[in-house]
Amino acid sequence: MDISELRKLGRTVWLKMKGDCIFCEIIQSRDGKILFENESVIAFAPLKRGILSKGHMLVVPKKHYEDIFDIPPEVLSEVSKTAKEIAQTLKDAEELNSVNILHASGENAQQSINHFHLHLVPRTEDDLDLWPETDYEEQD
Fold it and tell me: Quick count: other Cβ atoms within 10 Å of Cβ 124?
C-alpha cells in the first residue's frame, strides 16, 4: 500500500468514525476515479486494496441510502439498470464476457460502507473464486 492509499484509508476510517459517508464525499468532491455518471447514479473504482479484478467498479446512487432496506424501489431499479448498461457496454467492447454483481446490506452481511452500492466485478477464466465453500445443510 502506497502513501496515497494509506491516506485514503485513514480518511475513510476518520469519516466513518464521524458518521460521515465516504461515498457522499466522493460524489460531492469528484475525488476518485469516476468511470460513469448520469443524473442519479455514479460508478467509480474502489480503493486499490478493495479491487477484486481488473475493471471492478462500484455503482452507487448519488443520493444517500443506507442499504437495501432504505433505498426506494425506483432508485434501486435505476442503479440496477445502470449496472446492466455498464456491463453490456464492456461486453460489447469485448472487455468482459462474465461478471459478478455483488451487494451486502447490514453488518452481518459484511456491509462496509453504509451507502447502498453494487460491486460490478468483471470475471475471467481462472481469476478467483468469490463463492464461499460451505457445509451448510438445510434443517427439517
Answer: 12
Q: Cβ atoms within 10 A of the Cβ of 135, count?
A: 4
Please state the domain count of the chain.
1
- The stretches of the chain forming alpha helices (DSSP H) are 3-18, 22-29, 73-92
Identify the residue with better confidence: 95 or 102: 102
- 16 pLDDT higher than 50: no
Closest CA to 124 of 101, 105, 97: 97
The whole-model pTM stands at: 0.79
Report the CATH number that the domain containing residue 68 is assigned in CATH. 3.30.428.10
Domain hosting 57: range is: 3-123
